[in-house]
Specification:
about 30% helix, 8-stranded mixed beta sheet, globular, about 500 residues, 7-stranded mixed beta sheet, alpha+beta, Glutaredoxin, single chain, 11 helices
Length: about 500
């Protein structure tokens, strides 16, 4: 019999991040997945600034930055001509230590998180499927069936579904998955290509009838390409690569040649969100809770954000640091963002792939020009970065935010990043509990309802001046949650 406070079902990026967070806070748990190991496929590619900031807290960001590369820009190729170039390399300068879009394949993200789990004494129970699941008082019981035919019963207090769009846990919790599915069938392929264009970042190819998106991958000639599956391909179970290769080359819009491929698949784009992310002591995270188009490179990053948000709260409850009411804030904080993301990415993807006259005109003539103009203005450039990078996410309406504010900074906001000679603000946030920052001689405030780790820091000198310039109080106190969001801000 396995008895554990927390059972995580699914060990993709979201489940692995949740397990890593629980290890960071010393919370016992078990994680299972019916796969035999971490994915060997590239899958998701984009790693946003907020994810890199969260990796920094885990101490794995340097390893991540050593394996991928920065996407320096995006080029719009309209009817065979480069009509716009959107620089991305330093678009968020001054807003994050990682002011760019980073490319790192999902397989490598999973490996980084798995290595962290192993280094902290944990493991993943691979080739293990949860079956025969039942309520057990306020918790759950069931059976874990292994690939070799053996099985073992379990009991847990908290059940977390991280098993993707077909989540067994979501079905068990009877949480509707609201939304729909785009009619078009899309393809994705990892290719080796020789192009006349220098490899600098994303290539968005738009012509009268077709749309293709090329995402750079590690390696001189490697790209991921997505597009609408051409009608000439009728066998959806066995896509002939020669036909797909011809379709892509005919719609390049520039000189290029496909020299090889490593992976091809088909899929339909869904836009769905669970009616709730929590049902009693059962929770959903990642694709089990929300699934949307790949527009903007948000999917994997959103799941990782779910895990960071839920991780410290579950750990705090299991470790006895705070009451169970903190768990209510997970759905309060993460579902509104998920709902907004499903809506916006669906509209953006519809604009990109629609063959109707209006959307074709907008993406061909208006969008490239609009982006070029937007990026000339600092405020709009910052807003674009903050939105895509997920650094704009705040939890102001949450029950964990008390409504306090100082100037433009509110409780629930991400703690700002800023530098001074010899340091930066994120160095204060490396601990595993709340951080209480005292400015101008103000006394430290108590973190109400919390008996876990608290780090008190008196801020003086150059760091205090930099904090004031970033909008924090000259004299006052700021309490920061374990996930780097502000809990309370007070100014004398």
């Amino acid at each position: 019999m396995i008895k554990t406070p927390i059972l995580i079902v699914g060990a993709g990026p979201t489940g692995l991040m949740l397990s890593a967070q629980l290890h960071r806070y010393g919370a016992p748990h078990v994680i299972v997945d019916q796969k035999t190991g971490i994915t060997k496929l590239s899958k998701a590619l984009a790693v946003q600034a907020r994810t890199l900031e969260q990796y920094r807290q885990l101490g794995i960001v340097d390893a991540a930055l050593g394996q991928g590369f920065v996407a320096n820009g995006a080029r719009f190729i309209i009817n065979g001509r480069v009509r716009a170039h959107v620089p991305l390399g330093e678009i968020g300068k001054g807003l994050s230590p990682y002011p760019y879009l980073y490319i790192l394949e999902q397989s490598k993200n999973e490996a980084l998180l798995h290595d962290y789990i192993s280094a902290n004494g944990g493991d993943v129970r691979w080739d293990a499927e949860v079956v025969d699941l039942h309520k057990n008082g306020t918790g759950y019981r069931g059976t874990i069936k292994r690939g070799d035919g053996s099985s073992q019963e379990f009991e847990c207090d908290y059940l977390i579904g991280c098993g993707g769009a077909s989540s067994f846990v979501r079905h068990f919790l009877q949480l509707p998955f609201e939304g729909g599915t785009n009619e078009q069938m899309f393809f994705v392929a990892d290719l080796e290509m020789q192009l006349e264009l220098e490899k600098q970042g994303l290539l968005l190819v738009i012509n009268k009838n077709e749309f293709l998106a090329f995402f750079p991958m590690e390696g001189v000639d490697r790209y991921r390409v997505i597009g609408v599956l051409p009608p000439s391909i009728e066998d959806l179970e066995n896509i002939p690569f020669d036909l797909l290769k011809t379709h892509i080359e005919e719609n390049f819009g520039f000189e290029g040649k496909i020299t090889g491929h490593s992976w091809t698949s088909r899929y339909k784009v869904h836009h769905r969100i669970a009616s709730n992310f929590r049902a009693q002591n059962g929770f959903l995270a990642g694709d089990a809770a929300h699934i949307h188009s790949p527009a903007g490179g948000q999917g994997m990053n959103t799941g990782l954000g779910d895990a960071v948000n839920l991780g410290w709260k579950l750990a705090a409850v299991v470790n006895g640091w705070t009451g169970t009411n903190v768990l209510d804030s997970y759905d309060e904080e993460r579902r509104p963002f998920g709902k907004q993301l499903v809506h916006t990415t669906d509209r953006a993807f519809g604009l990109i792939v629609s063959k109707s006259w209006g959307p074709r005109f907008i993406r061909t003539y208006i969008l490239p020009r609009a982006l070029s103009i937007i990026l000339k203005f600092g405020a709009l450039r910052r807003l674009m970065f903050q939105t895509i990078s997920q650094t704009v996410i705040n939890y102001r309406p949450s029950s964990q935010s008390d409504g306090s504010r100082f100037k433009k900074i509110h409780s629930g906001d991400r703690f700002p990043w800023f530098e001074w000679r010899g340091g930066n603000s994120f160095e204060w946030l490396q601990g595993t509990g709340y951080v209480v920052l005292c400015f101008g001689g103000a006394g430290a405030l108590k973190v109400e309802g919390w008996s876990g780790p608290v780090i008190e820091i008196v801020v003086t000198g150059a760091s205090a001046k930099a904090a004031s310039a970033a909008g924090l109080p000259v004299t006052g106190c700021v309490i920061v949650r374990p996930d780097m969001h502000i809990s309370h801000i007070y100014a004398e």
